[in-house]
Design brief:
By secondary structure, this protein is mostly helical. 70% of the residues lie in helices and 0% in strands. α1 runs antiparallel to α4 (110-143) and α6 (175-199) packs parallel to α8. It is globular.
């Protein structure tokens, strides 16, 4: 791949990240109110569609040889090997959110639960894995191609970017929450990156990402937007351990 194509991918990654964080352009024209749902969920989901279409056309026209990993190859075997870990971590997250938010003070509609608690996270998983792993991770790996640690460097750096990118959602919360969110998301990112590079399949981290995110479903039943200390005490150590495990798995092949 030549330098021009790498520049194209870098630009595309930055544009998607900007759109994902800001909600632009949908934030300017999408304002849909359904039942007791928060309107911004529709705004973000429409933005996911725009990002997906834009990325498909961009790669098809300018970088047709860029391999994202949207394939069946490695999916079943990869899920057998790493799916149990992903499901276990997701269950721990569900328990952590449940105990942290109890007692619950909302009775949401089925529409709210399905869209905010499930469907929305399908889009989150696909778009975040698309540009963090499918684009950014591979871009960094190619930039460090001459290093024997190129894959390890790419996985860790992309995970750090992934973690730092989640600061924007917790800026109005305590320092403990901000630091905890970054730490656990970096650990999660290293795991997703390891799974991706071990299987060469982007669907696998997307599926596991979705399973982990959908365990935030208890928030639909609570008026609390932040994270209880108890939740952090459960989740953060789990993701630190997961990150270390994933790092060591990658280190074996270096």
């Amino acid at each position: 791949m030549n330098k021009r194509e790498l520049i194209y991918i870098a630009v595309l990654t930055l544009v998607i990240a900007f759109m994902d964080i800001t909600g632009i352009p949908s934030v300017f024209f999408v304002n849909i109110q359904v039942a007791d749902m928060e309107p911004f969920y529709f705004t973000l989901m429409i933005n996911f569609l725009i990002i997906g279409i834009m990325t498909f056309l961009f790669l098809r026209i300018l970088c047709p040889n860029w391999k994202l990993g949207f394939t069946k190859i490695g999916l079943i075997d990869g899920f057998k090997k790493y799916g149990i870990i992903g499901v276990a971590v997701a269950i721990v997250g569900l328990i952590a959110f449940y105990v942290g938010l109890s007692p619950f003070d909302r009775q949401p509609s089925i529409v709210k639960v399905l869209i905010e608690g499930v469907i929305y996270y399908v889009g989150v998983a696909i778009i975040e894995e698309l540009y963090v792993r499918g684009l950014l991770l591979n871009l960094i790996e190619k930039m460090f191609a001459k290093s024997k640690n190129s894959t390890l460097i790419a996985v860790v750096l992309s995970a750090v970017v992934f973690g730092v990118g989640h600061i924007f959602g917790v800026l109005n919360q305590s320092l403990l929450v901000i630091v905890s969110k970054v730490v656990w998301t970096v650990g999660m990112g290293i795991f997703f990156g390891m799974v991706y590079k071990k299987t060469s399949n982007l669907w696998l981290p997307i599926i596991i990402h979705f399973l982990i995110n959908v365990c935030a479903l208890p928030y639909c039943f609570s008026s609390i937007n932040g994270y209880a200390d108890l939740t952090l005490y459960i989740v953060v150590p789990v993701y630190i351990i997961l990150g270390i495990y994933s790092f060591m798995e990658l280190k074996k092949e270096v």
